[in-house]
Task: inverse folding
């Protein structure tokens, strides 16, 4: 992990104690494995970001604009005027410490600046210096710091060590949403041209192609055809996957990871099988081909722009309502921001399940329903035939993905589906699930390979709970409903608790789903043989 | 009473001080948290460290083979290998035990042979910790490679299924323009 080559003499001098340091000292060292690469020039230009240039966080000179201080202070002022919540969050914290030990990055890294309260202080201290009488008069004594280039580097380091999961906010007696502190911190960094490739790259692809993976329409079509071929191979049923179908009742929007990344791909197969089985009148879109929104990790304006395509495409295709796939931050945007970003979606109808007649009252405003709500309703009304024994090789636990859990309160529906689709389900310990769920450590743009050590630190608390149920119950499958989880858990679990795989809830549903006219299934959606005898004992649910 | 017997009698105190010394390799606020939070899920680092040190000390005092203790050493090193430690800082936690023992017993009265035996075993633990540290670094590289291969392998499978290319390169991958 260390970059510096040590001489034998230096190696022999091991200092067991950490360097004594004051939190106000902003010096940070960018060690490989613990930070995200900067966005390359072409992607900065694609998004028309300020101060475009080629740079690297390990450079001594970050080539900040000469007036970077004014830009950041001006940016703070603008946001203080615009967002009352932010002013409140900066002013009301009493540093009680309730959040201090709740962050997975603090727990896993042991770095005190990852205590949410201290991470926020990195920004608050600058706020005090330039916006409060106490800070102006007392300076350091009043907890105020000058803004300089070192502080910008420190912000870049630590605001990209927060996955905006909001676990800390659950414990804050004042309801401070530290995620929003990070969001604003990143916006301020953007003003001086400091953003990461893993956020800017996908966001710029999304502006160009409609999705983070830069999948053009014809490639998306081929991917869906390939999915249909895979399903035909497994079930013997040929499915035409509807794309850009005008007049369809429902537009289905899912994260683009489902189209090209494993194991999310198997979740996609599950969706398509389900929709075919219930005869749903729906369509994929090659324009609204991304439910996720990396603009959220860059700034509110970018999030708003990237979100706009969902209502625009709904209007163009003339659908009645929108159904959304398994994704994490996508649902924070859809559930909390879409209405005011780009709504009201009053040209759409209140979502009603065409199969059960259930009115989704909770989606009356946004007109967008979560796939788990939709599927749980189908199962509850006995509209699906399921054979849970097809998942018998899996002993399953469920990871509450941060945003559906803490931003939507979606706790029971995924568990309901899993319990109907699988015979072996085990919960992780209570203080690691539901609203207290631990993040995977790779959300909010922290997921690139170059950041692996940091991700492993952040993922340790979640992995230790998975390891517990693996050792106690023999759990070998972690189910989740987030595309970033599906991408980040396989390496994370391989390091911390080998032998546990990752799946989407609708992959497990697809395995269990008994489809009309299907052949005897020999494999599950992964192409692995089903358990001997799994075809026996089919039950209606 | 020989050295091992003396240490066994004081095992609880030695373990506590060794754990404290390991926690003190973290910044002050963190060390306090690692020491005080007893819930294993709220404090997985503190929990894994305490439990593993206990097992290692047990093994050391009961004459276990060092290799038999490697699983416990791994539980600690796995964590320290990804944290903000240099390789020697990460792997040298067994050496901290020496000072704890010296502080705890009257070392001048211990026969040299007994002390050298124990010290050699502690040094062996440290070497084992270095070996595991290297293994963890290798594992991280392996994980990175595997992720790369997985995403590339899926794309090739998809392209082949669409007839866009073959593994031997006999067809033109550009037919599947954009999937890169």
Result:
């Amino acid at each position: 992990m260390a970059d510096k080559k040590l001489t034998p003499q230096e190696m022999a001098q091991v200092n067991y104690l950490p360097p004594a340091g004051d939190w106000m000292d902003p010096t940070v060292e960018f060690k490989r494995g613990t930070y995200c690469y900067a966005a390359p020039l072409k992607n900065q230009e694609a998004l028309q970001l300020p101060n475009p240039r080629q740079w690297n966080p390990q450079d001594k000179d970050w080539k900040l604009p000469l007036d970077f201080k004014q830009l950041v202070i001006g940016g703070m002022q603008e946001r203080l005027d615009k967002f009352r919540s932010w002013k409140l969050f900066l002013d009301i914290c009493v540093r009680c410490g309730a959040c201090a030990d709740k962050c997975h990055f603090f727990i896993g890294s042991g770095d005190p600046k990852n205590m949410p309260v201290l991470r926020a202080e990195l920004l608050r201290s600058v706020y005090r210096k330039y916006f409060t009488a106490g800070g102006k008069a007392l300076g350091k004594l009043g907890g105020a710091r000058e803004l300089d280039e070192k502080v910008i580097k420190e912000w870049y380091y630590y605001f990209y060590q927060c996955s905006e999961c909001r676990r800390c906010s659950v414990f804050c007696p004042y309801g401070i949403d530290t995620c929003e502190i990070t969001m604003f911190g990143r916006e301020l960094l953007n003003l001086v041209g400091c953003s990461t490739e893993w956020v800017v790259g996908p966001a710029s692809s999304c502006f160009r192609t409609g999705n983070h993976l830069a999948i053009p329409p014809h490639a998306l079509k081929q991917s869906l055809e390939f999915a249909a071929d895979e399903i035909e191979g497994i079930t013997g049923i040929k499915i035409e996957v509807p794309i850009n179908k005008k007049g369809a009742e429902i537009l289905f929007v899912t994260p683009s990871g489902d189209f090209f990344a494993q194991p999310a791909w198997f979740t996609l197969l599950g969706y398509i099988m389900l929709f075919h089985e219930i005869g749903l009148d729906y369509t994929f879109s090659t324009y609204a081909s991304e439910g996720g929104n990396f603009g959220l990790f860059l700034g509110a304006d970018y999030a708003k722009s990237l979100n706009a395509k969902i209502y625009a495409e709904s209007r163009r295709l003339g659908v009645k309502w929108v159904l959304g796939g398994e994704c994490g931050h996508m649902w924070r945007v859809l559930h909390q921001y879409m209405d005011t970003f780009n709504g009201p979606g009053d040209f759409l109808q209140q979502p009603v399940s065409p199969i059960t007649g259930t009115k989704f009252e909770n989606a009356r405003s946004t007109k967008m329903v979560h796939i788990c709500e939709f599927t749980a309703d189908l199962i509850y009304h006995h509209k699906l035939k399921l054979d849970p024994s097809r998942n018998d090789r899996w002993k399953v636990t469920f990871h509450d993905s941060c945003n559906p859990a803490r931003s939507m309160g979606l706790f029971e529906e995924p568990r309901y589906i899993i319990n109907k689709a699988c015979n072996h389900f085990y919960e992780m310990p209570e203080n690691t699930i539901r609203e207290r769920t631990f993040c995977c450590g790779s959300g909010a743009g922290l997921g690139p390979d170059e950041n692996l050590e940091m991700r492993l630190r952040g993922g340790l608390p979640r992995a230790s709970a998975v390891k517990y149920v693996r050792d106690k119950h023999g759990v070998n499958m972690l189910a989740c409903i987030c595309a970033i989880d599906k991408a980040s858990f396989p390496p994370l679990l391989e390091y911390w608790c080998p032998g546990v795989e990752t799946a989407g809830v609708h992959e497990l549903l697809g395995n269990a789903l008994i489809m009309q006219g299907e052949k005897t299934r020999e494999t599950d959606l992964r192409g692995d043989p089903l358990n001997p005898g799994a075809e026996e004992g089919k039950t209606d649910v | 009473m020989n050295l091992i017997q003396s240490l066994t009698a004081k095992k609880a105190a030695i373990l506590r001080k060794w754990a404290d010394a390991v926690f003190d390799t973290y910044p002050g606020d963190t060390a306090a948290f690692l020491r005080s939070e007893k819930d294993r899920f709220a404090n997985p680092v503190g929990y894994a460290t305490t439990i593993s040190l206990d097992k290692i000390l047990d093994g050391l005092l009961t004459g276990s083979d060092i290799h038999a203790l490697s699983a416990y050493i791994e539980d600690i090193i796995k964590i320290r290998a990804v944290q903000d430690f240099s390789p020697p800082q990460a792997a040298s936690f067994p050496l901290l035990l020496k000072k704890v023992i010296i502080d705890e017993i009257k070392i001048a009265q211990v026969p040299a042979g007994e002390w050298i035996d124990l010290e050699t075993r502690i040094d062996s633990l440290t070497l084992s910790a270095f070996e595991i540290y290297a293994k963890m670094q290798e594992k991280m590289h392996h994980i990175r490679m595997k992720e790369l291969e997985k995403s590339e392998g899926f794309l090739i499978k998809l392209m082949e299924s669409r007839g866009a290319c073959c593994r031997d390169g006999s067809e033109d991958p550009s037919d599947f323009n954009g999937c890169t």
In short: The longest helix of chain B spans residues 112-161.
